[in-house]
Design brief:
The protein is mainly alpha-helical. The radius of gyration is 35 Å and the shape is globular. This is DNA-directed RNA polymerase.
Length: 1249
Amino acid sequence: MVSVFEACIRVGKVDRAELVLKRLSGVESYPREDLIFLHNRYLRASLDQMRLHPDRTRAENLHKWYELHIRANGLPLTTETVACMLKASLLSEHHPDRLHRLVTRYMGMAPGEAGLHVLSMAEILSDQDLAVITDICPTYNLAPEDQAESATNSEPETASSTEEAIQAAVSADAKDIPEVLATPQKGVGLKSLKQTLSLFDEIPQNCDISTLPLRDRREIQARLERDCVDAAVDRWREESESLQKMGLNTSVSHASLNSRLYDWQLALEARLKEEMTKIEAAEAALKKTPEDYDRCMYGPFLRLSTPSRLAAVTILSTLSSTAICGVDRGITVSQIISNLAKFTEEDIRAQIMLKKNAPKTKRRQVVMAKSATAAHKPAPEGEARSRLISDAQAKDAAIADAPWPVSVKTKVGAALLSSLLDTAKIKVVKEHPQTKTLVSQFQPAFSHATQLKKGKRLGMILLNKELVKILKREPQGDYLAKHLPMVVEPEPWQAFDKGGFLESSANLVRIKQGDRDQRLYTEAAIARGDMDQVFKGLDALGKTAWRVNTPVLEVMLDAWNSKEELANLPALDPQIPIPPEPEMSDDPTERRKWIRAVKAVENEKGGLHSVRCFMNFQLEIARAFRNQTFYFPHNIDFRGRAYPLPTYLNHMGADHVRGLLRFANGKELGEAGLKWLKVHLANVFGFDKASLKDRESFAMDNLVNIFDSASKPLTGNRWWLKAEDPWQCLATCFELKAALESPEPTKFVSHLPVHQDGTCNGLQHYAALGGDSWGARQVNLEPGDKPADVYSAVANMVKDQIVKDAEAQNPFALALNGKITRKVVKQTVMTNVYGVTYAGAKKQICKQLDALYPDLPKESGFENMLSAAYIAKLVFKSLSTMFRGAHDIQYWFGEIGGRVCRALSAEQLERIANDGLLSSSTKASRDKKTSTDELLGQFRATIVWTTPLRMPIAQPYRRSGTRVIKTSLQDLYLTMPERSDPVHRKKQLQAFPPNFIHSLDATHMLLSALECHDLGLDFAAVHDSFWTHAADIDTMNRVLRDAFIRIHEEDVVGRLAREFEARYRGSIYLAKINSDTAVEQKITAFRKQKRLSLRDELLMEYRRQTLLRSADPEQVAEAKKMVTPASIFEQMAAAEALAAPEDMEALGLGEIPSNADEADLATAENEEDAHDEIAADASEVESPGERFTAHLKDMMKVSHFEQTVVLSDKKKKKADRTIQVWLPLTFPAIPKKGDFDVRRLRQSEYFFS
């Protein structure tokens, strides 16, 4: 309702806004501070109408509104409320005595300096109003000389113009470099990016913006951030007018798409003006049709923009959405409507913010300047004196940030899309099949059709084939140029939506659509000051200044423009051979295999083309910024991990982007820095598992190759291309060559970021949490002569087990003996700590086997997926052995998370008890089941915890319902996420351990960023890879070790347990107790006697817990006499009888699900079904390998029917083996920690290296 209210206010529908506000006032749970802000909006809108149409009666009505809806409800007032009521008084009352009483009354509500803030609201009170008020209340009168002086001071400084400053900053050192060869793109984007970057073309190429005055730099930055909607329309208009000047019509077949888009713009604009007229008629109609009701719903939101801008946004968004999915494939209606509505909402918000940030009048500055010296008259005892709050407290953002309802967004998107489908035409010219003459016809550019996909009928938007050809040939402008690097330091973070860019909006936390929990928790933490350290950490990351590494850029552009493949740059036209088409035969399998092979080639080409298109954007940005200093503002995800906001060019990009970046500030290498520069070269080359001394020697041993790579990168022996990260290796070759060729290498000023990477950082945190000495050695928490490699350690353990199994004639071990390498297990080890499932691990390992041993299935006789399943079990077993303590902690995480997800909070319990939320269970069994289902649907407690930096983390996983929304195009089934949705227990449970580790990762990084900033280091981070100057590596490494120790010296797990106990105090959860235990039998006997429903047992236990917490001894005694299933459980101290949550299977580190064999079989059979569409002919002779595979499947219960029966029977038996009991929410004891002392880390030089 809030967004509807705001839309009505903005389009002048005050009467309708009044009705909505009355409904909102009746919502008891709506915050009073937010409600007074809505009243302020209503008062302001009413005053605006009265300015246009003076009406004393309406002004009197505002006084009644204040008395009935604000004062009577005891709402807190703001300075804006007082200003509005003063204005209403001045408009409604001409009798001097009553006017004097009203003004005195309302000014009395804003004593002292608050009164000055009231008078400063120039957008409400005019100069004449101010004169009347200050005449009645002379305390606030301003002398004429004060006004003149303040007005003079408010004039802008007469600094030189931006253009003059630019000319003064020209440097003679810069040189021109080649243009970037454009990649023909299936869609839009590149030209818009270049249009935005054309700002740099207006600046001399040898001008360094960083040398300009701050005011000029901020002006340039603001221009970069402004959207490209107006620029796109201007470009369309220019090309259309150019054609008309040449005497050509834009409908000619060879007209550019830009000129056609301008025709679309005009036609769609006219159509939307008609739609606005229909909306007016629908709102005025006494008898409304369904279409009228729809227009009444979305009309106020469309009116927030203009038909011209809505038309441009619709065209750009539609082309952008189709480009992402592939213009020749089409896009689902739900997807394109969602994107269109999102772009429209964002554009309207941006326009509102631009207007809101417009400069205030000088008179406001005059009044505010007086506030520092104004005499404070003793405030009269006004009725609302104690209730006056600041406008900031009224949460101005409550409206601006109120998300549009999904139903409204859907109808807005559908209305705009429908209008585009009706108006966008394209001229198609064809040759007549008989007369051979060219005939033309205007056809719809887009069409709405339905297609069957995976058994479901989906609405699709398809592009006209002629339009597809044009879009492939002629890339156009869209939103892709939105967030570029900044040319000034980012704005400090001050609020959830205030920080980073100057004008473009950005949120502090990246949250999924519909997730309100994380935002509410974060805003509450900001208000308490708990997010200050996070703010400072993000600000520190944003202050790191960057420049483009020009020598690398020049090489990259030469390679790019050659159109050939080089390093990770794909070829413009990759030559991937297509297998010859098989001859016609009776066997359809051969042709199906050929079709699959052709599709695979097409997919590979399409993938390479997409990569090249994305790189095209990155290179254009790098070329534009090549002479500039720039910055990356950062924000965080819900776990606290930091990410740069600029999308395309940032240090978290792939190897080629990292190679393009260097620090803007340089530092002399010194002896240590020269050493670390050599070590860095070994690291990026891939020689990073040796000792530091060996890595340094590696660089010295390859000096000839290094110098050759730097001198002749494309024409020499290309040694740098053999590196693991070739572009970063090339950048290091340039830097090292320049340093060694300088007169004094240790005095060389280096700008290259040198990296220090953690050893599977997640396992480092787990080893510290669990105190695992063996695991700590494997991840370099313990000092050592050489860096330990956990991946090699796990690979060796797997090899040893395979040797043992081969001796026992295990067929898998015999086939895999000698084939296990570090690469086979690395990804699974790395991701296991972050929650990879057993099924996921099998796929990871299978992918490696396919790449390393493509002929293994022929040699072994069975599919690689079965081999991967065998290896995955051994990997998981090795990890659980190596990190025993971490394994136990993951189980503990799962246990406490499982209880929280099956709990009802104290507030929910009180509501259930008092409001009769659920039906009584004394009805028929069917009603009992309904009551139980309603009760189980109340599990809404998401898992929430606080990081060591005091940032709250709220997991966003809920089971959102779907809703059918009727639109003018078709009915859409959309997910409607709400805070009241039940939690998704499985996702909550399985995501908790990895997300908790991610939050520790994030804490370690931000602590390190803060300390490095305080020490004057340039610092950047890519999650668990930290960068600084070579000369500062030793200092940064000390900071990294100290920050890690600071985190783990404290009892991290113990603090989490205490937080959970405090956060969920008073909750009751639904536990499961194993049958055939003494406590289960006693509870069952109790239930047979009492015959209570699950709800009745809950209310009984709630009453018992309430009495136990009472300060009255008699009530406590009464509670102790009560008998409930929970009291029986407590009396028998039967904690061991609790069953583990059903979703905890395979949760522990390296844990394998109990049904792994059946899962292996199902996976293998599914793989065969997916890859063999037709079964082999029964008459074909079986090969020995096929006979072995069949025998293997027989051993593993090959029958899918039998497997299904067995699994179903297992699930049924498992369900029968437990009973459900309401217990007070408590948490199990923390697992015992190992003997590893994290302080030993201070002596480990390979912790990050």
